[in-house]
């Protein structure tokens, strides 16, 4: 049974149906009676957005949705999200009353066949039309404006977002109609578009802050913070001149946030994902082939809602993260107990609402959440705010509020209960909070009245001078760090914008959860190596960047601060022949180092075994020189005098261009090995690369690394391992063999057969001579790395004859019998004598 359509209209439908079965891409706007069937699409005038049916759930379900013409699997809006069609006979139709309807069976367009309706039917409507606007907004309008929508449309898809916020789309609510515009994640990414429990929504009370939350449990996940006139303080700062603009509107009718791409530089969207994260995704306008660059917006521990509990402050710079407001102490006892942060803090002295109270200014924070707070939306000065708060016994804090306009406060906000989800930024662009405290607690923190004005003025002047001087220094440092960062992380250009990274003067901190997810929860499939200090995994960050994740075994009881100091020291070492530390992660008992990932793995894969022919002589010479450069930097040029202690082919990684990068430097320091050694006289290193004085318990110096380098050099040339423990009959002591051959003027016989074609004979014999100099018994006879590099790179430099060595032979010592140098463990420990 058809609805009561005029007969003529019915004919039109029929005709258009015929036409549309011929063309698969329809015109932009279509009037009453026109239909879209599964397989047909409508493209917006600018060619960017497409409307049509798409398949999901492995082809089992069909939905009407909107996507980008250049990125057809990026669905930005869905109509019948909760009510999919199971076959390909669905149609979309606009009725004479202005209702858009999806029927699941094009031959049965009666009520029983309806799977979705826009519910925009209105008997006053004249000539309704539906149109896909250039912004990706599917609108229904009527020529007589018989409308109920604030933009003059009968209905628009922008009012009913799914999981994606497009430019110009509002996130917020209408105070009159109570229409909430919020995002709801898919049940399963790319598979099941039906709505999940994870939403991003604007709070209807307080300062109308934006949260992500698990709606079924009403559990807040991340609070974006209040609007400060430019951005939500809890999110990475957005530069307005970066091709985007941001708007926050709070008037008597509605309150919303929206963004726009001001120049046509980028496609950008904000998406909530089923795994409780939200992302900003973007593509350059001329870069439509590439994948979307993604930028996670809730990456830090401190972004987790109420991580430090009531009255706690989360401070990313603090290794334990949580602190209490001044005048408060941890509820769990005198100090924070790990994993009990959520208990928060309690006042040392309760307030009793007497004259004995005043306010303490807490600066540079994300102010507490405002659900139960009162927004005094008046032209109150900050002084008047204070008076209001002091005269209300339950007011415990207040803060100025900045809305549309930055730097000009508009009224203030007052808190009554606990202060929840406060974050200390340490970056100078946070908010101010005035906290009520007994005057006795204020004393010693700062004194309000005790100082004479002159003293204050003098202090201010001195302060200004110091601040501007340190400002200049910090600026220069920031610039430098940013330049370095830019070189090392391959963030897409669009995001190399300074303010997108939380500036951290020390080593960048990574979030444990994101590291865990990048490595598939440290799955054994991702394991790429194991050493004495821990296991190494391959990880893929959400932006596609590959990383090597070294999860340190947590048994050694070292201090958090030491770990942080050493990690930041290591991260400052930057050289093209050193593996770069990208950051670290310290949460709970986890100590994780994150390095750049090297596709070609380690050098031992290339100099020993079947792949030996892959690197010819000229490349090997380059590798040797590269390693020498890296080592020289560690010893001398970095200014830090770092001894590697475990240089060997397994610790030299190769990048895509086969450039060597020394890895594992500094880990001994990280573990406080020096102390361990002193106390227990244990020796760290790997057989075959260990200088005699080391195993003898002698003094350890940079010359020990020179010995290891010499062994490494001879191994690269010979393709043979320097065995110290003879497992097979043909195992050789490479050093002894090299010395003998050299003395007999037959040093070229040491050369790996694979290299005969490509080698430069004079260069090879020079290198062997240099290698022999490095492996001399006495440390004092060995050259320094700068001598070594000089000899390697200058053909005309003279090379001394190496002294004959005992070529340290472990095999006679029964203690060494269990050790097999084939073992890949990067670190072997043994008892010295
Ligand atoms: C599309 O509609 C416009 C008017 O809105 C019309 O001028 C144009 O000819 C139509 N194009 C097609 C292919 O029907
Ligand atoms: C949409 O994409 C298709 C396939 O890539 C292309 O052929 C077509 O020209 C595009 N349409 C517009 C209007 O850009
Ligand atoms: C669509 O409706 C027609 C007529 O009622 C029916 O014959 C046909 O089987 C239906 N198709 C589907 C896929 O339900
Ligand atoms: C809808 O149409 C189908 C087939 O024409 C019919 O079997 C069914 O009874 C109709 N339903 C209603 C509610 O009219
Ligand atoms: C709109 O359609 C619904 C069902 O499709 C109906 O219940 C309602 O009365 C209609 N409203 C108007 C104003 O026509
Ligand atoms: C958003 O940006 C587009 C493209 O630059 C522009 O056409 C549009 O007017 C802007 N919208 C608003 C509300 O500023
Ligand atoms: C995109 O490409 C067009 C044509 O090559 C060029 O004119 C335009 O400047 C480019 N836009 C951007 C933002 O690079
Ligand atoms: C995008 O891909 C198409 C086809 O694969 C290719 O012709 C075009 O050059 C590519 N564009 C860019 C900017 O890489
Ligand atoms: C870190 O927080 C603790 C309290 O949780 C505090 O005692 C300590 O001073 C803080 N450290 C720094 C560097 O701020
Ligand atoms: C209020 O507390 C202060 C100390 O915090 C105390 O000196 C004062 O006596 C108390 N007043 C009352 C009325 O309890
Ligand atoms: C707000 O008040 C309600 C009711 O008293 C309470 O359940 C809730 O925990 C409070 N929320 C915050 C953030 O203080
Ligand atoms: C969340 O889902 C998105 C989309 O599938 C994915 O890109 C991202 O890696 C996921 N994040 C986590 C932490 O699992």
From TrEMBL:
Keywords on record: ATP-binding, Cell membrane, Disulfide bond, EGF-like domain, Glycoprotein, Kinase, Membrane, Nucleotide-binding, Receptor, Repeat, Serine/threonine-protein kinase, Signal, Transferase, Transmembrane, Transmembrane helix
Pfam families the UniProt entry points to: B_lectin (PF01453), PAN_2 (PF08276), PK_Tyr_Ser-Thr (PF07714), S_locus_glycop (PF00954)
Residue ranges of domain Protein kinase in the record: 522-793
TM annotation in the entry: 454-476
Signal peptide location: 1-24
Major site of localization recorded for this protein: membrane
The EC number(s) this enzyme carries: 2.7.11.1
One GO MF term: protein serine kinase activity
Any one GO BP annotation for this protein: immune response
Positions annotated to bind ATP: 550
InterPro entries, per the entry: Bulb-type_lectin_dom (IPR001480), Bulb-type_lectin_dom_sf (IPR036426), Kinase-like_dom_sf (IPR011009), Pan_app (IPR003609), Prot_kinase_dom (IPR000719), Protein_kinase_ATP_BS (IPR017441), S_locus_glycoprot_dom (IPR000858), Ser-Thr/Tyr_kinase_cat_dom (IPR001245)
Record's bilayer topology term: Single-pass type I membrane protein
Apple domain sequence ranges: 353-438
Cellular localization per UniProt: Cell membrane
Catalytic activity from the UniProt record: L-threonyl-[protein] + ATP = O-phospho-L-threonyl-[protein] + ADP + H(+); L-seryl-[protein] + ATP = O-phospho-L-seryl-[protein] + ADP + H(+)
All residue ranges annotated as the Bulb-type lectin domain in the record: 27-153
GO cellular component, one term: plasma membrane
Broad class of enzyme this protein falls into: transferase
Similarity comment text for this entry: Belongs to the protein kinase superfamily. Ser/Thr protein kinase family.
Protein name as it appears in the record: Receptor-like serine/threonine-protein kinase
Native source species: Zostera marina (Eelgrass)
Classification of source organism: Eukaryota, Viridiplantae, Streptophyta, Embryophyta, Tracheophyta
């Amino acid at each position: 049974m058809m609805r009561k359509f005029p007969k003529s209209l019915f004919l039109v439908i029929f005709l258009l149906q015929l036409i549309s079965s011929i063309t698969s891409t329809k015109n932009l706007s279509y009037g009453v009676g026109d239909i879209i069937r599964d397989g047909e699409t409508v493209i917006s005038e600018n060619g960017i957005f497409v409307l049509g049916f798409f398949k999901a759930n492995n082809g089992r379900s069909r939905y009407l949705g909107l996507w980008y013409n250049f990125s057809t699997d990026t669905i930005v809006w869905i109509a019948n999200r909760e009510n999919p069609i199971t076959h390909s006979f669905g149609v979309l139709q606009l009725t004479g009353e202005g209702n858009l309807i999806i029927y699941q069976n094009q031959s049965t367009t009666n009520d029983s066949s309806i799977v979705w309706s826009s519910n925009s039917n209105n008997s006053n409507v004249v000539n309704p039309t539906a149109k896909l606007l250039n912004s990706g907004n599917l609108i229904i309008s009527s020529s007589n404006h018989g409308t109920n929508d604030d933009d003059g449309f009968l209905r628009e898809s922008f009012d009913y977002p799914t999981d994606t916020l497009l430019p110009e789309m509002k996130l917020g609510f209408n105070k009159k109609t109570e229409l909430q515009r919020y995002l709801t994640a898919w049940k399963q990414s790319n598979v099941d578009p039906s709505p999940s429990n994870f939403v991003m929504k604007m709070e209807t009370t307080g300062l109308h802050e934006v949260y992500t939350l698990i709606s079924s449990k009403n559990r807040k996940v991340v609070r974006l913070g209040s609007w400060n006139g430019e951005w939500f303080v809890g999110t990475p700062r957005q530069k307005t001149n970066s091709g985007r603009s941001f708007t926050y509107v709070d008037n008597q009718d509605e309150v919303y946030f929206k963004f726009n791409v001001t120049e046509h530089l980028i496609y950008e969207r904000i998406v909530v994902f089923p795994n409780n994260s939200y992302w900003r995704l973007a593509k350059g306008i001329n870069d439509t082939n590439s994948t979307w660059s993604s930028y996670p917006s809730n990456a830090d521990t401190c972004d987790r809602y109420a991580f430090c509990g009531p009255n706690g402050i989360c401070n990313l710079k603090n290794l334990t993260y949580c602190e209490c407001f001044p005048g408060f102490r941890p509820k769990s006892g005198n100090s924070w107990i790990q994993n009990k942060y959520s208990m928060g803090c309690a006042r040392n002295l309760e307030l009793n609402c007497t004259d004995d109270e005043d306010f303490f200014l807490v600066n540079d924070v994300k102010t507490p959440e405002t659900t139960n707070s009162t927004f005094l939306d008046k032209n109150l000065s900050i002084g008047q705010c204070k008076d209001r708060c002091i005269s209300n016994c339950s007011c415990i804090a207040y803060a100025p509020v900045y809305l549309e306009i930055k730097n000009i406060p508009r009224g203030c906000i007052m808190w009554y209960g606990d202060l929840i989800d406060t974050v200390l930024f340490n970056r100078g662009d946070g908010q101010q909070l005035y906290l009520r405290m007994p005057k006795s607690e204020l004393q010693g923190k700062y004194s309000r009245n005790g100082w004479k004005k002159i003293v204050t003025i003098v202090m201010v002047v001195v302060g200004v001078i110091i601040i501007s001087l340190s400002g200049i220094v910090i600026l220069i440092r920031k610039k430098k760090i940013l330049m370095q960062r830019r070189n090392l992380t391959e963030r897409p250009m669009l995001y190399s914008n300074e303010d997108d990274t939380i500036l951290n003067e020390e080593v960048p901190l990574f979030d444990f959860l994101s590291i865990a997810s990048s490595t598939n929860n440290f799955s054994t499939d991702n394991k790429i190596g194991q050493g004495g200090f821990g296991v190494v995994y391959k990880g893929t960050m959400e932006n596609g960047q590959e990383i090597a994740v070294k999860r340190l075994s947590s048994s050694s009881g070292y201090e958090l601060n030491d770990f942080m100091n050493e990690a930041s020291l290591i991260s400052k070492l930057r050289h093209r022949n050193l593996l770069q530390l990208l950051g670290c992660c310290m949460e709970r008992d986890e100590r994780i180092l994150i390095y750049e990932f090297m596709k070609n793995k380690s050098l031992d894969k290339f100099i020993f075994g079947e792949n030996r022919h892959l690197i010819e002589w000229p490349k090997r010479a380059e590798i040797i020189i590269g390693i020498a450069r890296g080592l020289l930097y560690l010893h001398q040029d970095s200014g830090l005098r770092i001894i590697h202690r475990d240089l060997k082919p397994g610790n030299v990684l190769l990048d895509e261009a086969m450039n060597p990068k020394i890895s594992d430097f500094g880990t001994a320091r990280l573990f406080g090995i020096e102390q361990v050694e002193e106390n227990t006289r244990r020796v760290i290193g790997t057989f075959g690369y260990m200088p005699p004085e080391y195993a003898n318990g002698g003094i350890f110096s940079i010359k020990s690394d020179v010995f290891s380098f010499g062994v490494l050099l001879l191994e690269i040339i010979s393709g043979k391992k320097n065995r110290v423990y003879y497992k097979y009959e043909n195992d050789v002591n490479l050093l002894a063999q090299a010395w003998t051959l050299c003395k007999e003027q037959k040093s070229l016989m040491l050369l790996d057969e694979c290299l005969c074609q490509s080698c430069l004979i004079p260069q090879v014999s020079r290198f062997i001579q240099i290698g022999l100099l490095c492996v001399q018994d006495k440390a004092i006879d060995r050259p320094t790395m700068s001598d070594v590099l000089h000899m390697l790179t200058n053909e005309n430099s003279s090379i001394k004859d190496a002294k004959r060595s005992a070529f340290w032979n472990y095999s006679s010592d029964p203690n060494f019998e269990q050790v097999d140098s084939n073992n890949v463990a990067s670190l072997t420990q043994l008892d010295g004598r």
